[in-house]
Each structure stands twice: as C-alpha cells, then as structure tokens.
Amino acid sequence: MKWTKLTLKTMSEAEELISNMLTDLGFEGIEIVDNVPITEEEKKAMFIDILPEVDEEDKTAAISFYLNEGEDVEETIAKIQEGLDELAEFVDVGSRKIMVSETEDVDWINNWKEFFKPFRVDDNIVIKPTWEPLNNVSNKDLIIEIDPGTAFGTGAHETTKLCISGLKKYVNSETKLLDVGCGSGILSIIGAKLGAFSVFGTDIDPNAVKAAYENAKVNHISDDVLTIISGDIICDESIQKQVGFECYDVVAANILADVIIPLSAEIGKHMKPGGVFISSGIINMKKEQVKEAILKNGFQILEINEMGDWVSIVAQK
Which residues bind S-adenosyl-L-methionine (predicted)? Predict the structure, then answer.
C-alpha cells in the first residue's frame, strides 16, 4: 500500500501552532525537521553522546504528515492553507510551500531484521538472531540467541564486545552479576551462560524488561538465575533497595559516559569489597572524564580497553 505524504515548508517558531492545527484536522504521526538545538536535559533523556551539527541561523522547518486512503489531496491542501492564513496573523509561517510525494507502507519496526545476521564476537561466542539459521559452529561455541525487539542490544557494537570481553575474564560460577542498563538482556544472558551464580538486570525502559526475559527464555536461562526490573538505579531509592547493597561481585554497565559518571557514585554501594565494575559505552573523547569520576568514587582502575572510537574501563571497589 502507498501513502500520500505532504511536507510543509515553514518556520520553526510556527511549529507548535501548525502541529496543533494539523491535529485538529485529524492528522496523526506528525514529523518535524528543524535546526533547533536540543537542550542538555533533552540530550540526557535521549541517551546520546554526539549530536548532529545544526545551522542555528536557519530558522526554517519542514513538517510532514500523511493522508488517509481516499482523501483528496487538493481539498486537504486548501484546508491547510486556510488554517495558515489564520495563523499568519500571529506568527511567521514561512513559505507555506507544500510538497506532495508517495511512500511505501513499510514495516519499519521489523525491516531492520534483514541486516541482523549471525556473527562471531570472539573465538567461542556466537550471537544469532532468533529467526536466522546457524552454520559453521563447533561444540565449543557458546551460542546466544537474541531478538532485541524495541530494546537496545544485538551485541554487534564495539561497546558490547568490550563488555563481553570483561565478563569472560571476571565471571565465574560464584559470581553474582549486576547488569545496569540491560537492554535486550544480552550481557545478562552471556553472564549466565558463562556460569554466573545469579544475574540481576535493570533498565529504565519497561520494553527492555520484556525483551530481556523473552531472550532469556529462548536461551534456556532460568528465572531462578535471572531477575530483571525496570527503573533508574541512580536516583530511585526503591530500585536501589530491590537491587540490594554490597552483594555483587561484578557489575556491567554498557550505557554512555554521561550516565556512567553519576552511576559511579552510586554503584559501589551495591558491590562487595573487591568487586569489579565493567563500564562501557564510553566515547573516547570522554574517557578522561569517566576515569576521573571512577577514581573519585573510590575505585581502582584495573584496565582500560579500546575498540574503534569506544572505551571500556574496568575498575575494582
């Protein structure tokens, strides 16, 4: 099925009023592209380290929306222009040019799956999508099946590979493992497969909890071994209590530098003396900031590993 897409050229100052007008006309799923930089608060909420460059002098914007099947394009454009006439009395609505195009009805949620193929993390860990067949493996290989769903984590990124390397080095049959920001559960599952006595995972996204439990089931990880909850361990006291204090031998946190820095002030409370903190997701330009925070919060750095532009810091309480 094809959809008719309309894109209105306007000004960023008019975005909110025009969006409200389009909503009143019955449009849903409005998309806005502009050059307004996001705030630090928004950046933290989005969990991103590097922002795209924008031309802050360019005050134009593009608002896209879609027609329902059977709607008349010319009639719809006329209604929108009438609405813009009214708004123009209060705000600069820009050129008001409306471009019309067609787009395929694509399953964006699942379309990425064709690019996720089985791959080898190292000499004996292989990660495969649950929907893909697997060839060229040996009896010595540790096979991890993953369907990330809408949660982050296929294992292919350098940051995850760095964490996996740390887990292989420090996890044993007596390990109580804490996975902060568990996403799809890949590190939790690998920790359990490596023989960890117990694994506790947290993630701020409730969808991650669902995905992680589903992936754990596929990989035959028992609920007796794995527990995952949704919440923020950094600032939520109820989550901190559920996680427990001074009880983990190894903590893995594959997140971002801006999260690891405040996490380093909290996570030591949940670790046994001598426990190991494996942090990853650190872009190399922020390595020194993370090192400083980890040292400041009472850890001794054991090793620093790098892959591409990414850094993993392994520290001991």
Answer: 160, 181, 203, 254
- pLDDT for the residue 70: 73
Residues at the annotated binding site? Answer: 160, 181, 203, 254
Tell me, yes or no, whether 175 and 271 share the same domain: yes
| Long-range contacts, 86-90 (Cβ 8 Å, 24+) | 87/14, 87/17, 87/18, 87/21, 90/17
Q: What is the mean pLDDT of the chain?
A: 85
Range of the domain at 237: 156-316
Q: Write the burial class of residue 152 (CB in 10 Å: 0-12 exposed, 13-18 middle, 19+ buried).
A: buried
For the segment 234-290, what is each residue's pLDDT rounded down to a tens digit? Answer: 999 999 999 999 999 999 999 889 899 999 999 999 999 999 999 998 988 999 999
Same-domain check for residues 170 and 295: yes
- Residues 6+ away with beta carbon under 8 Å from 157: 310
pTM of the predicted protein model: 0.68
Residue 55: give its domain's CATH number. Answer: 3.30.70.120
**Residue 255: C-alpha distances to residues 69, 265, 291, 292, 310 (Å):** 42, 15, 15, 17, 12
Residue 148 lies in a domain: no
Which residues belong to the annotated binding site for S-adenosyl-L-methionine?
160, 181, 203, 254
The mean pLDDT value for 142-162 works out to 70
Residue whose tokens read 């694509």: 106
The amino acid at 148: P
Walk across the sheet containing 142-146 and list its strands: 119-120, 125-129, 142-146
Q: Which residue is associated with the tokens 């990425």?
A: 112
Side-chain-side CA neighbours of residue 43 (13 Å): 14
70 and 170 in a common domain = no
Query: Which residues, 6 or more positions from 149, have their beta carbon under 8 angstroms from its beta carbon?
Result: 184, 207, 210, 211, 214
